Task: structure prediction
Amino acid sequence: MDQINEYKMETARLRNDIDGMKANLEARDGEIERALAPFIESLIKEQSMTIESQKEENMLLQNQISEIKKETAQIQMLILQANKKVANLQEEVGDYTGAKNE
Result:
């Protein structure tokens, strides 16, 4: 019977030790969380600002790409018009570039 009581007392003591360790770990966990919270918040703010800045830059670049595409289309149209004019002039006047080689 004494041995059973000793086991019960030892078990209770170990449970108390475990509870104490658990409380100690939870307290340290809370301290770490409180200590890191400002750092984490600043990282989140910095990340948000970086994302917003990147979004703005992406929009500007997209607008520039759109403008370049419009300009390219306009230049292609001018080249086609110039080629038609050259073809019309060659028809009216004749193509003398080939005549010199003959």
In short: Residues 2-93 form the longest helix (92 residues). Helices lie at 2-93, 96-101. The radius of gyration is 41 Å.
